[in-house]
Amino acid sequence: MADTSTLGGSRAATAVVYKGPEVFHLDTISLPELGAGELLVEIEMAGVDGSELHMFRGEFDHLNKRAPLIFGDEIIGRVVATGSPSERDVAVGDRVTVEARWPCAGCLMCDRGQYYLCENNPNREGYGQISMSKAPGLWGGYATHVFVPKAALVYRVPDELDLGSALVGCSVLANGLRWNNYAGIGAGDRVAVLGPGPQGLACAAVAHRAGAKVIVIGVEHDSERLAAATRLGAEAALILVPGDEDRLLDQVREVFDEVDYVIEASGATSAKALATRLVRHQGTIVNVSVSASAPVDWMALLRKEVTIMHALSHPHTVEAALKLAVEMKNEGTKLGELITHRFDLSEAAHAIQVASFNTDERPIKVVLVPSLAGAVPGGGPA
Ligand SMILES: [Zn+2]
Q1: In the Cβ-directed half-sphere of 107, how many Cα atoms lie within 13 Å?
Q2: For residue 15, which of 112, 121, 283, 373 sits 20 to 30 Å off, Cα-Cα?
Q3: What is the Å distance from ligand 1's center to 328 Cα?
């Protein structure tokens, strides 16, 4: 028999439903009956990503066609019900994270373990991007509950990790860990990270811990984030004044003779050209951000024999990232402290604007906390 011992009287979820461009609505959705290997997770915290602004604005036709849908692919919560048989090594009451995407029944890339590149999922459907027309509808983190299908990948959060550190660990740190490893960044490498958002900071922290020397580069409004970069081990945190790239290059050279790797995490079109200038001859640019319209100066890359890599998501990395988050905590670095702003579900649209630097707030990491609705009137900055 299915274990629903902690569901109590709750038979419905509340979710922030994206109905179409610029329209969120708080809806009530029935909780599903669970089959074998399925779980229901009550969400404690969900990450808000600045890139979700583009989704909210309706800039992606393929997502608009899937509306209604529930955003959110960085999820930490407690298992509140399991199907029968459970077929999983987690139980009701366990704190878990669910990975945004999972392998299909069989394709070349999933067989290779690269399920983020699944050939049967060319539109990259996963948490935050699946239409609610697909039962049971609870496919995103902007909600009180999320449904976990049998194929999804679930990881128990170590007991010693606080909620915020678990949220940062399961998502941005997992990306940072996988991207550094994929690029082969290691001891003695000189790394420049463009863009000190949560993702850039995670890349910097992981590179530093791998023995690399790291510079993090932002712009004027990034001062809080650049201070965090220094706390996470960056040798220098530099501010680029747009239009004065020459000065920045001089500042970088005062720290490193050369830059072996540039991690482009800003997504800014101009940063792609800057990366080409920053990287040494025969160096590597690791692109981890979306910038669809950035032109590529192939001649500049050819003249320096630059290698360009792209890295997307974090297959097979979440467990290692959570373990790394515990190690960092034991050494005095609580990743949860990167979370500067917490909002309840009713404030999701505002949370996205804050995360995108479209308000006067200067956040590092923004999250939604469903339980805030009853605890803090109006939610607001933590
Ligand atoms: Zn596949």
Answers
A1: 14
A2: 121
A3: 34
